[in-house]
Amino acid sequence: MERRTPNHPLPKDDMTRPRPLSTFSSTSTEADILAPAALPKIGPFPFNTNPEPAVHHENGFPKNEVMMDLPPEGGMQAWLTVAGSFCITTAVYGLSNSVGVIQSYWAQYHLSSFAVQDIAWISGANIFLCLFLGVQVGPWFDKFGPRWLLMTGSLVYLSGLVGLGFLPEDSGANVRQGLRAPRTMYSLLMLLWGVVMGSGAALCCTVALSVLAHWFEKKRGLAAGIVFVSSSVGGAVFPLVLRTTLPKMGWAWSMRILTLIVASLLSLGNILIKGRIKGQRGSGAINFKCFRDASFLWTTVGCFSECLVDADVGSGFGRLAAGAISDKIGRFNTMMLTTVFSIVTTFAVWMLVEVHRMWLLYLFATLFGFGTGSVISIGPVCVGQLTVPSKFGQYYGTSYSVVSFS
């Protein structure tokens, strides 16, 4: 059979065949010329030819998501958000830290027939719900943003305070109304202070702390430290107000003055706080998949075992200093150092306290508060290290729902 050459014309039947694109090249071969053209695949669904998103080499999250969520680390709106969160936590955590004065008043007037440990369940329910309900508030925050959640939480919290102002003041009058009157008063206080205000606090505080992740990463420790100082500030200011108003004005007007102060702080928080990352990242439902991450699990265990709520001056300084230091040397490193500092303080100072050396007790309270106060501010920041800002609400709320049992 005679071999065809490029100068040799093709037969007519071969010229009618469709020619592939490769025949237009000077390097075409006989196989290319004679091969039939490949038909495109046609199916009911288009094929996804887009490559998978690049994965961040440090934390395993998609790189495009990390870049989109990268916080600006400052700016006017960022620091205004910090100021708004400071106002929110002053109103909520500050008032919770002042419950000692209010609880003493309950024991003397409203609930004089109840044991102190029974009265303590009311304030305990408030703190428990504030932390525990974050498991649902966190995913809501990631989905809807801060505005409506913060507004709803503020209204719920204030409604509980307003309701407290309508309770009767004279415990003797309650007893004369019947044997069930003390139990009714206990139920009302549990409902208003424990359930209503605790639920409002969960909405307010979870949003106020989660929104910091929208604006800060490298400086998040400092921002969280500033916000958590507010609980010490409120824990010092609110008792001074109550110790002045309760003896002179009574329960009803003291609660109304307290409501006015808290309403002003919550209003400022609602105005100043603004979210940066748009929502719609998930369904807004509770999700416990984050516990599959061993780092998150052990961080939650650490926060659970070390979470101590105190309101002394040393604790306030500890929260601010630890937050600033953590941005320099690392959040988990700071947590370990402050834990060691607290242990050393216990053995070096507390063990030496005696009746004739009571100044050591005050020194211990200041130093120990400085060390343990860091847990309050560094705990959420450590949790934030394990996720991207758009999912911080879920991680923080889930973690501290476990901490609530401590």
What does this structure look like?
It comes from Triangularia setosa. One of its GO terms (cellular component) is membrane. Belongs to the major facilitator superfamily. Monocarboxylate porter (TC 2.A.1.13) family. Keywords: Membrane, Transmembrane, Transmembrane helix. InterPro entries: MFS (IPR011701), MFS_trans_sf (IPR036259), Proton-linked_MCT (IPR050327). By secondary structure, the protein is mostly helical. 67% of the residues lie in helices and 0% in strands. The chain has 17 helices and no strands. It has helices at residues 12-15, 30-34, 63-68, 76-96, 99-110, 116-132, 134-144, 147-164, 171-176, 181-210, 212-215, 220-272, 294-306, 313-329, 331-348, 359-384, 392-403. It is globular and about 55 Å long. The model is unreliable at 12-16, 18-67 and 174-179 (pLDDT under 50).
